[in-house]
Amino acid sequence: MVEAQGLSKVYRLGRVEVVALRRASLVVDAGESVAIMGPSGSGKSTLLFLLGLLLRPTAGTYRLQGCEVGGLPPGERARLRARHIGFVFQTFNLIPGLSALRNVELPALYNGMPRRRRRERARELLERVGLGERLRHRPAELSGGEAQRVAIARALMNAPLLVLADEPTGNLDSATGRRIMDLLAGLCAEGRALVVVTHNAEVAERWAHRVLRLRDGVLEGGGDGDR
Amino acid sequence: MGIVDALEVALESLSRHKLRSFLTALGVIIGVAAVIAMLSLGTGAREEVREQFRGLGSNELRIFQPIAVGPGGLRPPSRPINYEEARGLWELPHVAAVRVSLPGSGTVVRGRESLTAEVLGVPADWILDQDPDYIAQGEFFDEYDVEAAERVAVIGRTVLETLFPGEDPLGQVIRINRVRFQVVGVIKELGRPHPRVDPNNRVLIPITTAEELFGKHRSVSVAVRVTDERYLEEVREAIRDYFRRARDIPPGEELDIQIFSFREAAQAQLETARTFAVLLVGMAVVSLIVGGIGIMNMMLVSVTERTREIGVRLAVGARRRDIAVQFLIEAVVLGLGGGLFGVALGILAIPALLHYNPELPVALAWPSIPLAFGLSVAVGIAFGLYPAVRASGLDPVEALRHE
Question: Where are the domains positioned within chain A?
Answer without folding.
Answer: 30-56+73-208
